[in-house]
Amino acid sequence: MSDITKKSLTEIVNLIKKKEVKSEEVTLSFIKNIDKDKKLNSFITKCSDQALIRAKTFDKKPNLEKLIPGIPIAVKDLFCTQGVKTTAGSKMLENFTPNYESTITENLWNEGAFLLGKLNCDEYAMGSSNETSYYGNVINPVAENTVPGGSSGGSASALAADLTPTTIGTDTGGSIRQPASFTGTVGLKPTYGLCSRWGIVAFASSLDQAGPMTKTVQDSALMLEAMASFDVKDSTSINKKKENYSKKLTDNIKGLKIGIPKEYRVEGMPREIDQLWENGKKILKESGAEIVDISLPNTKYALPAYYIVAPAEASSNLARYDGVKYGFRSSNGNNLIEMYENTRSEGFGDEVKRRILIGTYVLSSGYYDAYYIKAQKVRQLIKNDFDKSFKNVDAILTPSTPSSAFKIGEKKNDPISMYLNDIFTVPVNLAGLPAISIPAGKDNNNYPLGLQFIGKALDEQKLLNIAYAVENKINFKQNLNKWWER
Amino acid sequence: MSIDKDKIKHVSKLARISVNDKKIDGLTKDLTSIFKFIEQLNELNTDKVEPLSSILNEPLRTREDKITDGKMREKILENSPQKNEEFFIVPKVIE
Asked: Which of residues 36-65 of B touch A (CB under 8 A)?
């Protein structure tokens, strides 16, 4: 059989269901790729032995009725996995082994999958290049000196390099879609509340949302089907019935209206990205969709509002890391307060500390109204912009990122230029909407570029259909030469 | 809003993060540029806008006040950096 690790998740699932391949063979093939990798640094924890046992157990009595039977999956190290170390990319949680399983991973295992490993990410998911992880930079399989994006950089890198057939990430301001765009993969951020946040290490609770990262749109539909559920343990989980996204997937998008927001044409955007966007419009028209010019006037204020709301929520979420109940504790300090201060100073990295300080500042007495309440008002304006547009269109098309993958170290010392990378993805989180990034072309360096579709809340099916139709016509090919094995 | 070293020291005290003197200059510079960026929001008039704290249309659910788990003291203590039988140990608080 041709290299099984190059196949899509859906293809592998079909082979297993037709009994043409065993889970053990699939699992071994991915483990072989993981072991051959010398450079990407996408894994924090490998679970090869445990995965093989699970594969063999599956093969003895395969339940082929499940959605993803016998599939090994490596997940972002932000999802708590029972009995397997969960670090969130931080020194703070270097020795943390949860006694419980996140709802999302539990859902995957209930659909027949099992854990292949835990993937590197920016520390507490704070970063856009996977350069803030305590466990080192992750490299983009697309080119040796480039970042994979972040914060789900390990997930994107492992997926693009065929080290896992599918993966999951979390997206607070673009952390699924931006790395998907940088690595030529598909990343979906679902509607806020569709996938349970229970058991995911928290960053900014009103923005965090887990989603699938896959090689194809069809895989994305299948994974979302497995992940989404109503969960009483997450008070923001939406109570709605399960959808069969993969079965209902169609590339018939005739008559749909797609909005093009003029505010997303930003100054200094490379010509290649403009061309990519034009090409997306062309394909949509050929598929029978109608292109509509729209305006989202407050777009430029999304990023500044995000950099108040997200750090504020982070400073409050991360207050729990005090060196007492779990996680790292500093041995320096003569009293309780000094122990707290040293634990947090030594246990957190620079970017995390920076964001906690920003968050603490904007929430502090005397500044709360000027910053935090102001940002929440701006968030309302951004949501209103989308609500108004969605009265006239079914979805919105934009580029996923303002550039292709950048060089390691290129933006590390300039936080603002790093933050600007999420300019097209952040508004979606503020408005709680679903959005998907699909690989849509390449730049002069042969680095992938992504297009983003934004949908109405809980309208994932239509969003997937549109992405599926465009994916079929683009026919993106990756062609990586596996330099990381040398 | 200008960010100076004293302000950073005050906020780091509130956040319970000790900031050493070597790092404080870099932090001052970074936070100054970040706040300059954030303060673009002041261009917008938001007097008549309600702040949005939750994106969900429905209010948060409440649950019945009943125990759904428990009896997991040992499991919880397993991850503690310092413990003694059934207690978390912290530096001495009362002399």
From this structure: 37-44, 46, 49-56, 60-61, 63
